[in-house]
Amino acid sequence: MEAHTTTAIPGGGFLIQRSAPANTFTPEDFTEEQRMVADMCNEFIEKDVLPHIIEIDDKKEGLMQSLLDKAGELGLLGAAFPEAYGGLGKDFVTATLVNECLGGGHSFAVAMAAHNGIGSLPILYFGTEEQKQKYIPKLATGEMKGAYALTEPGSGSDALGARTTAVLSEDGKSWILNGQKIWITNAGFADVFTVFAKIDGQQFTAFIVEKGTPGLSLGEEEHKMGIKGSSTRQVFFENCAIPKDNLLGEPGKGHIIAFNILNIGRLKLCAAASGGAKLALKTTVAYAKTREQFKTPIANFGAIQHKLGEMVIKLFAAESALFRTAQWIDDKEKELAADGKHDNALLGAAEEYAIECAMLKVLGSEALDYVVDEGVQIHGGNGFSDEYNISRAYRDSRINRIFEGTNEINRLLTLDMYLKRAMKGRIDLMTPAMGVQKEMMSIPDFDVDETPFAAEQKVIDNFKKAILLCAGGAVQKLMMQIEHEQEVLMDIADMAIDTFQAESVLLRAMKMQESGHENAALALDIARTFIYDAADRISHSGKSAINAFAEGDEQRMMLMGIKRFTKTEAFNTKDARRRIAAKLIEKGSYYFA
Fold this sequence. Notes:
4 domains; 10% strand
């Protein structure tokens, strides 16, 4: 494959401008070193994690910690940490790949992601130099394990509604914490907690709290539906005194830490979900090839092939959008680091693409849910038995639509961020939206462009017009009340999520076609099937949104626009899915990069 070059577009910019295949990073562009890292991660999961999965779920004493130690020895915990703090200093794309490959580790994947993500990054990016030197090298090796204590009984999505308090002691040497945190991953064995509390009940602030601090206590292990091997406990603070220097960041700026770390966490969750889906797909296709009904393997049946083909399509789409965004963040990080004006270049880069990160969280978790749900269905009654790993995959997947902000919150954030950026002039949505309204009043262009992929690109351009039509109409009609019309916002977000995936898939398929990749024809099948099906979904979401805020002639005109902008040529998706499934059945696992 030719070396990748990129011209990153601004965050959210995919909606108003085209990208070229040559400037789009895809999994086929992984370097040899990145592939070696992936192989090491896959081998670790296969040899060290999966053989002990039942013991992990049973919370065998010390097992999870020993696995984290082993991952630390391999450099996997600190892959993205700077070398100056004991990490490997790998780029963001490589770090994303590590998360994907370890995503098939069930409860271990959750423990590891919590440790080297939300459990470590707040200190790495917001800590003082002394705090970084004290904690990050030990977190990078696994000598210390990290946890993140944000959620409370009365504040989940409303993180700023936290009631845990912090007051300065009379002698001014300590912070005294009082309060309660729930659903804290790794709490049972964590050595260091990033804790959010309000100074004097007002200023939302982050603190570093070490295990064993007097006044810090833990609840019993939670009995969960899934990820049973992950330690999840309540954490209590009763006059818990920590050194004054353990304040993390600035007083009253805890929200900056929480929200910036979440951007990276959302993308990494998509990566882990992709890895989990690949393992579940491998498990499922193996079963379909050996399970016989009516004297033939069920993999030979069209109904099963449809499911298998759709699993590959959803994985390919999620993977394409994921690494496209990861490279944008990597490029932006290097740009911000080079200008020397940003202390936290990666966080600045992740904030730039916060819209994409929110969408990735949704599409990744829901792709995984589809794969494991249909995996159980293909297993039939056996899928409902704990003897088959697909039942564990099904249980473990469900939390991902809640982690890192619920999917509902992330859908709402997608549109909220777009509108706020438009108001601040960071992205110009008004000009293209007005262009769409003008086009609505004109005669459609019936000229046919015979250039390869021109038809598919035009469809995606039209998807973007459909989004601008709905979003522009909703803003004009609802004005400041739009934030209260959550159903409308989520409909438009779904249109954006489908469009972002459709474009990412097409760009990848085009790039594979241009390079003569062996799976280029199947990638094109995936792109055309995804686009064809997305047109129906976008049409439905668009009509639902319009019917919720428009009426009369305005409604009729906008509905005509949706029909116009979601029109596609006929395509035989049945045969395309069969071709996609046939390759999967032949290979026995996901067969793209």
